[in-house]
Amino acid sequence: MSRPPHFSKLVVGAGIAAMTTAVRMAAAEAPPPADSDLPPPVDVVVRETPPPHRAFSVEWNPLSLFIDRFSVNVVIVPGNHHGLVLSPFYTWTGTAEYATNLDSQGNQLVNANGSPYTLNVPRQTFHGFGGEIGYRYYLAQGGPRGFFAGPSLILAALQAKAYNGSTTGFGDIGIAADVGYEALVADRVSISAGAGVQYTFTTQDIPPQQIPASIYANERFYPRLLLSLGYAF
């Protein structure tokens, strides 16, 4: 006796439903996979490659020629942010001859008889070696990079030579503070610029001189402009 077709379809449907229910129950009862079985998360953050560290930079200061000085910088930055700056220099400067009938207070010069007179001041020269040792804090990493600020100590041994050939040796002592910015173009060529202020005094009393000789021979505050070009290692 044959079964009707709709009966066979009911049997097949019931079997499929039973299998589906069994699979769902097995999946619900199975323990969740351990973290070690999961694939690692994908890191989608683009990380910037840090610049190479440059520990040394040798730089020339072209602006120092305007104050009759040849100077270089040796910048040492062994780690991040903290730098040591050594700046040896040689100066050769002098005053121009001039004549005046006024004293340093602006009063008329008079001789012992009370008569006015004119004072002829001959040329005087100054020369000698000196240097600065300073500290800089750099905001950026990777060597002498970014904004910086720091103090420095100035020391020099100079000699003044009068028109008659007589010489006077004296020392120059000062302190300075600077702020600026330094960049390493192509991670090698160093360019820096900045400004600051310095105060210097001498170990011998030197009469007031003209600029730039007064920078080395007289006690006072002076502004500073910084510009250097060099190469980093």
Can you characterise this structure?
- This protein has one domain (56-232): Porin.
- The model has no long low-confidence stretch (mean pLDDT 86).
- β8 (167-185) and β9 (189-202) form a beta hairpin.
- It contains 2 helices and 10 strands.
- With 233 residues, it is mostly beta strands.
- The N and C termini lie far apart (100 Å).
- 13% of the residues lie in helices and 46% in strands.
- The strands form 2 sheets. It has an 8-stranded antiparallel β-barrel.
- The chain is rod-shaped and about 135 Å long.
Give a summary of the structure in a few sentences.
The protein contains two helices and ten strands, in the order H-E-E-E-E-E-E-E-E-E-H-E.
List the helices and strands and how they pair.
Elements: H1 5-29, E1 56-60, E2 69-76, E3 82-94, E4 98-100, E5 119-121, E6 125-138, E7 146-161, E8 167-185, E9 189-202, H2 213-217, E10 220-232
Antiparallel strand pairs: 1-2, 1-10, 2-3, 3-6, 4-5, 6-7, 7-8, 8-9, 9-10
Structural class of the secondary structure composition? mainly beta
Q: Over all CA atoms, what is the radius of gyration?
A: 40 Å
Q: What is the molecular shape?
A: rod-shaped
Give the strand order of the largest sheet, numbering strands 1, 2, ... along the chain: 1-2-3-6-7-8-9-10
Q: What number of domains?
A: 1
Low-confidence stretches: none
Helical residue percent band: 10-25%
CATH class term: Mainly Beta
**On the 0-100 scale, what is the average pLDDT?**
86
Instruction: Count every beta strand, where a strand is a DSSP E run of 2 or more residues.
Output: 10
Q: What is the second-level CATH architecture?
A: Beta Barrel
How big a fraction of the residues is strand? Answer: over 45%
What's the number of helices? Answer: 2
Query: What order do the helices and strands follow?
Result: HEEEEEEEEEHE
How can the largest sheet be summarized?
8 strands, antiparallel, barrel
The N- to C-terminal Cα distance equals 100 Å
CATH topology: Porin
